[in-house]
Queue: 3 jobs
Job 1
Amino acid sequence: MTPAIIRYGLIFALVLSLQAGTASALTRTEVEKHLICSACPGEALNIDRCSGGDSMRAEIDRRLARGQDLQTILDFFVGQFGEDILTVPPRKGFNLVAWAAPFVILLIGLAVATIFIHRWNAAGRRETSGRDRPGAPPDPALRRRVEEELDRMEDAT
Amino acid sequence: MNMVLLGNLSLAAAFAASLLAMMLLLTGLMRNDLRCIESGRRFLAGVAVFTSMAALALSRLFMTDAFQVEYVASYSDRALPLFYKATSFWAGQKGSLLFWAWVLSLYIALVTWNTRRETRQKNTPYIYLVLAAILGFFLLLLNTVSSPFTLLSFTPPDGQGLNPMLQNPGMIFHPPTLFLGYIGFTIPFAYAVAAMISGRLDPGWLRKTRRWNILSWIFLTIGIILGGQWAYVELGWGGFWAWDPVENASFIPWLVSTAFIHTAIIQERRNIMRVWNMALIVLTFLTCIFGTYLVRSGVLQSVHDFGATGLGGFFLVFLLVTGIGSTILIAESYSQLRTRHSLESLLSRESTFLFNNVILLAIAFSTLFGTVFPLISEMVTGRKLTVGEPFFNQVNTPLFLLLLLLTGLCPLIGWRRASADNLKKNFLFPATLAIAGAMVLFGTGVREFYPLAAFSLALFVSATILGEFAAGARARKRLTGENLLVALPRVLWKLRRRYGGYVVHFGMVLMVIGITGATAFKQEKEATLQRGEAMTIGDYRLRYTDFRSFQDRNRTVYAATLDVTRQGRPAGRMTTERRYYINAEQPTTEVSLRISAREDLYLTMPTIGSNNEITIRAAINPLLVWGWVGGGLMVLGGIMAIIPSRRRRPTP
């Protein structure tokens, strides 16, 4: 069964890669996502369909046809309308808080979780050693029965 | 019968009944009087009768074009098809609020019925009291500042009609399913608060609310998926999720409730993480209310055009009172909730669940923080920024990949303790498959890190899930001697709670594949065509063959037909439309879709020229259909997990 799964997995990966082979260059939508419609404050250009947005879209098309990259096109619009035209806060000043906060929170969360797991594990070890100390090593038959019972419990959930 | 009068009276009676229920319950608790508690229970259940009458009255007003009612005149007109007239009920915020109160009262009636023999238990009256207070809040709003039965000073000849964008089956079911999810989490929240007030902190409340949690999660999932589907097929911008504040408002409780559902399993099994679970269910409820506050307050600009409804302040106060009250309760119950935690090993399923919680909450935080950052920025710097899709994609994508990795690792690691041998044995095949897949993809041109990582991890997780399915089927075969094909469905059904979870995970994998395919490998092109001209995109050639206009009920339709060939072979005909609705200022574009397992061909017609020349916007969204299939599987897995098992009769 395993070789068959590997075979099908590889075929699946190949199908994905065929799709990937058509990976596109910078599209207008990709640029639009980074910009706000100048006529509709707060609305991303890729969703907006107003005539004010049409002139921005035409400008993007012209610049894409000239082969400009995303940053160059965005810089042009920032020059025209200021940084408020962007949907992505530039990575500077107070905006850095927006970029950093999620990862800081993640790191703190992971650190706290790790500390808790270590503490719980230490408590578990203490309990085990406390139980084992007075008597002889656990009976292998008893241990096997406990393991089987735990397996059954796991199957039931 | 005068439906406006009936509606107003019903709402007033519902509010009075909820107040009376609260008073009786409080009296019963103070005097320890069971009769008062029982009466309070009955009054609370009775609220559902009055809210149902109010809901019926509003429906009848819509069906009879009663445009003297301001709410009906705002969201309906004579030309609106009957189906949409019936569902305009929740098109605006006043009707949504009535829908909310109505469903909540029905849920509460169900709870009071299920607990009718438990009124003597210490926590039950508190459950009723919390539920009555929350229901009372919604009924207060409906009776004072947000009544859907308010009359205009004149009767207009016709209504303003329903927003054409909302005249779509997906949008019709998207709000109520989201509401069913939001409202459902009120029940476990009430049980949790009651457990803390009464001091009955055993895992009983968790067991009793498990199905409510998962059912609410299922509704929230359906609501989010339907919203994405609607955006995809109706808005015409080619995407399905824009990280709009209102979308985020539904996604945050989904993330928090997903975290809660995972750690609730640990508490049920091990009776640990009790403080954490209490905090999570409170957070789930608060994020549901916060989402409603965001939608109703108008503090953030959103494509969802609710604007400032005047209800923001009420929801903010409710949010603060609930948040502060719950925090105090958790703090006061801390010593009782705290248990001695012990883990046999650092590497166990419990620890992976905890890390999974951290990542889910980190995604919830980044989504929340990004959503409210414009407000924070305005307060600090005086400038109100816009935080849009690329920000959320850049911040959340690595977090989602981490989550996907953990989803794969989790089944490989046993409860309590994972032995190195076992881990090696379980890990080898999925890891090999993922690495081989990554190499094949890399070798054939996928060089970007995120798509490569997403597809490889999708293979890894799929392999671990398939491994679990295969192990279950083999174990049953060993026990019963059944054929593997017979053993597999039987083991899935028998252990449906466990395998339902894996089906949800597999659905998530498919969703990752669909989203990655459609975002990383999307192709698009726009061209203006005269009749007879053609454009190409990818393997497709689209030839503009026909144009017609016609009147269809409440709209004038302009339709262009294109013959499609793929790699030179005919691949059908596609028709895309622009619709001009009566009572609507802006026309809408109707998307034409050709869906296959490989890719979607997506066409819209943004403009029509004076000589019927058309501008066609075409896009190819690879693999997207798998995202929708994945969403369906997530719902199916959730349903599997809540189907009750037949109770075993005790052996004599």
Job 2
Amino acid sequence: MTVQASQVAAVVIFLSMFALIITDKFERHVVTLLCAFSTLVIVFGICMHSPRAAWETLAVQNIFTPGFWYSAGAAESASTGINWATIIFIAGMMIMVEGMAEAGFFRWLCMTIARIVHYRAIPIFFTFMLMSALLSMFIDSITVILFLAAVTVELAQLLGFDPVPMILSEIFCANLGGSATMCGDPPNIIMGTSLGFTFNDFITNTGLMAGVSMIAVVIYFFLIFRKELEQDEVHQNLNVHPDPMEAVHDLRSFRISYVIFLLAVVLLVTHAQTGLTVAAIGVIIAAITLLTAWKKAPELLKKVDYRTLLFFIGLFVVVGGLEQTGFLQIVADMIGKASGGNPMILVAIIMWVSAFLSAFIDNIPFVATMLPVIRALSVSAGVDLSVLAWALSIGTDVGGSATPIGASANVVGTSIAARSGHLITWGRYCRSAAAATCIVLLISMGIMFIRYF
Amino acid sequence: MAEKQVIISVGREYGSGGHAIAQILATRFALPFYDKNLLEEIATGKNVDVRNLEKYDEIPKNPLISRTVRGFNNSPEENVALMQFDYLKKMAAEGTSFVIVGRCAESVLKNVPGLISFFIIGDKEVKQERICRLYHATARQALDMMRDHDRRRKNYHNHFSEWKWGDMHNYDITVNSSRLGVDETADFMEDYIRRRILQW
């Protein structure tokens, strides 16, 4: 068997995985695990006869190195294959978030903010957008939208306003907030751990772009939804005032979850200084959550979304197959040629193509695939790797906002609205979100051109 | 009606008269009748316009433009279906008796002890004649309507149910309404329901 045969096999498996994920017939983790198994047997075994490639892709040995848990400076992970740091960090954060949800933290926060603004539609609209972005900087956007959209629907029913404009704005801000930090969105976690970027690297680059874009987006959403919001203000029933503390069943757990969340934020913000890797932070946060939850610990562990973790494991192996066979180097060369060696065109291509594809396909497999590509492009085109990474990050994180299926938060938010009787069709969603996506991409591209070239 | 809970679910081929039979049974047993009007109750409860929901009633979702995340799906078709399933389960859990047409009720309420499920089929020519008469359609149009409606119902049902639409193993009785006609088929089903109730 030649190298070409292994490349063809790796590409066929990869495309089959994507097609099966899109059809939604089988659970995503089942698809990626089966494709991972096929990669190990067909690509590494039958085509390449290379146990070394399989071992490198499984990357289990990395977990047992000190650098996996503690690194004095940000170090780029040289390995390909399964990104265990991402998986361990996400698992740790899942446990923390389950603890917070169990304690009623998110519902309490939403209701408290609604009360502070006197349950008025327009102030709720602004504050919930801001809260959505801020929370998504540290917590996965699915959880943020899960609670925010549910409270929005509840307040809409109590106060008599249309929840759809708010939910659409909250979804967009959750995705935008997630793009600002290393831990806000799975693509950023994968990028940060693989390329050795720190929290500060993200916040001072993608964070800056997200921050400036956020101002434009808030104004944009207010302008397009102004009529509906102003009507809602007039018709609002102001006699009903839910008490935020009703969300809290156990005050001790609530306080502990609050402290753990703050600790997680501090550890993430300072991880470049402390030397703790995100994998270590994930384990520390999970351990504290489980120890303080004590009797509820088994319950929290049961609630962890293991399917997502298995999905990641399978996905990394399949992408590892593409990388080990050298196929991604070919893709990188093609993109390099298309840009004609112009770094600005290269950045624009990466950002807009990533955004367009992320609007329709899952951005996690896309980023995992593109990482080795931008690594190769950085060398061949002589462009700073970090610049390509920021373009990829903004493209994938924000591009997913354009359609109802582009990002997980969009699916959860539109579904929560639909279950309350407020159906959000593709047309209604894209009318507001597609233009907002373009606004953010244009602003980000402008910032990148001014700052890096 | 008996004190015991009775839920009569009627699946049907288009043109078989299943809907009319279900209405007759609802009258004879003095039970609330649900078909599309189920959405009206749901819409009233949620304070939304029912016309926005009706557009997506009993229609299969398009898998290429929908996605599922942690049990949440963005498809309006899927969410309208789930809303109805939840409402049916809620009524069943509250002990309410009713007659329900379509909406995968025989699968959704499979474990409810008071469920009696029927599937009504019919001969092609008889269904065609009935559609022509009721909807002032030509013979060709009637055939097209039968094909389109049945395909949609089948896709919808099979997406949400682990059992196949019209598979006799999924229903207590599958009956051809063309043999006895609508009224006598309803008589036969009424007799069956009364016998079942006597056994409870």
Job 3
Amino acid sequence: MTFEHITAIGLVFLYSLGALGLFFGTLSKRRAVNAAADILTLAAFLLNTLAAIYFFAVQSLDALSASAAPQLLAWAIVFISLCARLLLRLRILTLTATTLALVLCVLSLRSSPTALVLPDNLSALFLTLHISALFASGGLLALAFGAGLLFVHMDRKLKRKAPATVFSQDLPSLSSFDTVNRYAVLAGFPLYTLGLTAGFLWGPLFSQAIENPKVLLSLFIWALYALLFYQRMALGYRGRKTAVMAIAIFTISALSFGIDYSLSHHSALLRAWP
Amino acid sequence: MKQEIWLLGLSYKTAPVEIRERFALEGPLADATGCVSPDEEIQECMILSTCNRVEILAVSSKDDPSPFLLRRWAAAREESMDALAPHVYIHKGHMAVRHIFSVASSLDSMVLGEPQILGQLKEAYRKALERNTVKVILNRLLHKSFSVAKRVRSSTNIAANAVSVSYAAVELAKRIFGDMSGVSALLIGAGEMAELAAVHLVNAGLRSLYVTNRTAGRASRLASACSAEIVPFEDLSGSLARVDIVISSTGAQRPLITVEDMRPLLRKRRNRPMFFIDIAVPRDIDPRVNTLDNIYLYDIDDLREVVAENQAQRLQEATRARTLVDEETAVFCRWLASLDLQPTIVDIIRRSERIAQKETERTLKRLPSLPEEQREAIAAMAAAIVKKINHEPITFLKRQGGDQDAGIQAVSLARRLFNLDRGEAPDDSCSGGEGK
């Protein structure tokens, strides 16, 4: 059993308890449950951080294994949600973040721990930039997704004049979710663009772009993201439409991430590389 | 004689407003009549007098002090006892404790879960403290009732949602905008409910309020009543582009604001959300406006429905809250029962003997070679030490028992000193200045 697998088991355990605790704490409003959930989430994040530090101590981003990648992405998602919680006092977004982190850690548990060995001429700064910028934008997109889901839920309730449930009555306002969505897109799109550009400049991605579905999908996501960015920043769009769009972009990105995994896309690219 | 808690009162449930007015016991009146002065019949006393209830909470060692209290109450208002008695409910002991906990938790209020009653109870307690009419039992009872109310509020959703139309409108606005300090509202027309909603919005921290009316005089009156700015009625669409909340209650026969008016306005507003509260009948705002993105429209029926649902939710929560009140009542009554001298002396002796026995066993375990005779001597010595140590506190308690108030205070202190209630006793610390 490798280090990634051991940490993945620990992370699955802690993130699942944290997510369950946050869910039941929100429903029951019991202070003890909420406090326990916060402690478990922080413990999971701490373990995630230690695993990331260990990873960077022994390897580098350009030797990312299939089991380490989801853990790093989970770390980025939870880190950004915790920052949003500290800055904007939006506790509920930690619930969506821990749930996504849990899914990623399960994926890590089921993936190969073998590190991708790159030829020296491919191991470059652009690859590190490609991965780190995309992980950061992934974390921000997950935040926009969580805020978007909650916005759509509340908007629907308000439009239909449905009574406030135990879950919805303590939720922050619609405007708070819209603000989070706005900031996440504002910071996430440039990072996504940077990550994608670095990937193309790296080499293998650029040469195989046309025939690879993953690359085409990434370009499609970028186009949607650019549209959302333009609508938000230039046209001043806000509310349900932008929330739905953020949800759609995140869903397609998650699919793209899944395709990357199932097709071992990056490995295939490298094998094809002369 | 054992002291008992008594509660006599009338409320909106038992007496119409005319009777409540006639028998209200507030401020100077209560002082002047001496109705709250503890005397031979009554050892402790406190009055709670609000628009919905008048209650006298007393501690007495008499079999039934209620006729005496009723006589004093009626005399204080120069009324006959016959006019008062039919409307009065009387609770004793456990039921009195349960009642005051329910009152503090707003389970007995006209509007279930309303927060004012707790403040009124604290104020009544503060006055009783000033008059020096509350001692050990009522002190603890009142402090405990404040903590029960807090527990009920934090553990249930009894006060979670608004139960008046105007408050419901403010709550909905908060769900849309959150912080109200950057939000502005426009009041179209004049109407009592709309005005009330506007006042609640201003109290919630609204940035600015505008009013508009076909009649300039009414607009001016409203503006001064709500500290608002007047905008010309002819410039309604211009004003709509600026504000976030619109409260409308005109007598217009056709909608003032239509979906066609709002579409271009939304673009002009760069899709900032808007909340429309239409209190007018016939409605001032075209219902199709609600189909537009970022616009939320509630008419009077929608708001009433929200209120009805919130009330139903509070009723459900009240069942949970009553269970909490029952639990706390049982704890308090156990403490109250322990205030008798004899059970406390027995508890002190038993506790000390238990400790002595445990420590003797522990010591003897370390000395296995000790002959039986010497083991018995050590056990006897431990028992004798305990007896001697207990002698003085028990004598002190018995001596204090001659005076009822001093006796209760001494028993209460002894129970805390020896931790006889294992932390179950209600806290009577006066922290936070509640009622002080």
